[in-house]
């Protein structure tokens, strides 16, 4: 199945400007910022075995910015356990923080701050390198006070136009921990599908290689609660996806909610997706199994009942303009071999989930 992606998006994927950053040591800034962007790293508190760090990003270019990214190397023996006001991922020892949906726009001279909590000594957490990047409106690179912005950044080779925006949506099986999204991203790009953009308000885990980590996988979330809250509409408005990959309902089954109640919540989400984009393509998973011995007594049966009902539900919701496509994530998935706790996928489970999504996505992207 081939589809034309025609969403109007303001501004192209922008190039980046890299500037030297300000490193704050012992609370005293060591000023070393260049034209473009500066980042100040401070340790707000330190209790020996853990610390809280803060970073302030400032637009020192002559052009407003639409987003920002900060990168630094995390010293050996340190980990980051929590973050706020930014989306943060760790790949090996490289930490990458990008703006949240509400604090990416920086006027000339404007600043945004984010924080994080980590393990290890705060004093020894100070990075020896830190780099700051800005996104410019319309894809240009913001120059210094006397420099013009750079040209718009085109799409990848052989893939002109705006990227196809793909939103992974669900609970912790979609979010973290886990690396199926990373595997899917790598498999798609290795196959030549480079003009894609995974979108969402949340960051993912470091999985040993670079990937587009953004997603809407929220640990512990019930699809029925999301449907009632209306929060999905906010996430959709912030990212405007073309395709949604939805694996949702595990926590609802665990909460012993009826199959029809879960399907009604699915329908509410589909309506919200189409309100954002009438041409939305929606891929809905028959969810992976749960081991009743390690979850709830009725969980295995609940998953089977939900999965059995999904195809008929999808057929009733699907339209030519906005198809609802069922992706079987249940068949061939073994809770003993493919999960680490009877519920969440391990490495082999991640690989199976990624492969199933890949096979469903490729016909849509051709």
CATH class of the largest domain: Alpha Beta
Q: Runs with pLDDT <50, length 5+?
A: 6-35, 138-159
Residues in β-strands, percent: 25-35%
Order of helices and strands: EEEEEEEEEEEEHEEHHEHHEHEHH
The proportion of residues forming helix, as a percent range, comes to 25-40%
Structural class: alpha/beta
Shape: globular
CATH topology of the largest domain: Rossmann fold
State the distance separating the first and last CA atoms. Answer: 8 Å
> How many distinct beta strands?
17
Structural description of this entry:
InterPro entries: CBD2 (IPR001919), CBM2/CBM3_carb-bd_dom_sf (IPR008965), CBM2_carb-bd_dom_sf (IPR012291), CBM2_CS (IPR018366), Ester_Hydrolysis_Enzymes (IPR051532), SGNH_hydro (IPR013830), SGNH_hydro_sf (IPR036514). Residues 137-159 have a biased composition (Gly residues). Pfam families: CBM_2 (PF00553), Lipase_GDSL_2 (PF13472). This protein is an alpha/beta fold and 366 residues long. The chain has 2 domains: 16-139, Immunoglobulin-like; 164-365, 3-Layer(aba) Sandwich (Rossmann fold). The protein has helices spanning 180-190, 223-229, 231-239, 250-254, 259-276, 299-317, 335-338, 347-365; strands at residues 16-20, 22-25, 28-30, 37-46, 50-59, 67-73, 79-84, 86-91, 94-99, 111-119, 130-135, 164-170, 196-198, 216-217, 243-247, 281-286, 324-328. A 6-stranded mixed sheet has the order 3-2-4-5-10-7, with no helix packed on it. Strands 12, 13, 14, 15, 16 and 17 form a 6-stranded parallel sheet that branches. Strand 16 (281-286), helix 6 (299-317) and strand 17 form a beta-alpha-beta unit.
